[in-house]
Write a structure and sequence with these properties.
Length: about 240
């Protein structure tokens, strides 16, 4: 059974002195008559996410399931938009949040204040589970201990979340900040290469595997950032990439 996928919100590999901007990839998948989102984005993404769903002739209520790669703020905070959806999260990641492991790991990105609201709607799974028709969970620990990507098996497309955060880190074998273990993060890179023909990173454009010396991106997009730091001049435009 095949799956159709598209990028609703592109992830961007940007950061600042104030920390992570949190612009993650949100992926739409249709398979087996079901409408599925992988990750939800953060509050700052909310208006654009609703617009992108409308462009797909979808309402939030039409989403059947949300597959969460991990429980960081930039991937989960729009959960409340999807009132009819079941949420899926790996059992290991659920334990990381519920048992307070994120505190021992000094992980500042877990929005624990919303956990009680979303927890009753979460169905957990174990390693290599088929979570939706044609979609298999792939353990990609390292960034967090229970991070999972989702492999569209027939298409060999891996929605990797922050298991592969961006292509720059990936080709240099530089793992993202690891609240799990660095060696697990590097092993997750190798697992991704072995399983996928296309990787959809958590904070970058989809690219083809193997990457070789240069990354072959499948899609191009850009974002314009406006800086209004000088009240006596027009806002300065910065376009990325």
């Amino acid at each position: 059974m095949g799956a159709d996928w598209s990028i609703l919100l592109p992830g961007l590999p940007l950061s600042s002195e104030r920390g992570a901007l949190g612009w993650c990839t949100v992926t739409l998948v249709r398979t087996g008559g079901r409408t599925i989102l992988i990750d939800t984005g953060s509050y700052g993404d909310r208006a654009l996410l609703l617009t992108r769903l409308e462009e797909e002739n979808l309402s939030p209520a039409a989403v059947d399931a949300v597959l969460l790669t991990h429980f960081h703020f930039d991937h989960v905070l729009n959960f409340d938009l999807f009132e009819n959806a079941v949420f899926r999260l790996s059992e290991r990641e659920m334990n990381y949040v519920e048992d307070g492991g994120f505190r021992w790991a000094a992980d500042p990105y877990v929005p624990f204040s919303i956990f009680d609201k979303i927890a009753p709607r979460i169905e957990t799974f174990t390693e290599n589970a088929e979570v939706e028709p044609g979609i298999r969970a792939v353990d990609l620990p390292g960034h967090t201990p229970g991070l999972c990507g989702y492999l569209l098996e027939k298409e060999r497309v891996l929605v990797a979340g922050d298991g592969v955060k961006n292509a720059w880190e990936f080709i240099r074998e530089e793992p993202p900040p690891a609240f799990g273990r660095r060696d697990e993060a590097l092993e997750s890179y190798r697992r991704a290469i072995a399983l996928a023909s296309i990787i959809i990173p958590g904070h970058d454009r989809p690219f083809r595997v193997p990457v070789g010396e240069r990354v072959e991106y499948l899609q191009e997009f850009s974002i314009e950032v406006l800086s209004a730091g000088d009240p006596h001049a027009s806002p300065r435009k910065i376009t990325f990439p």
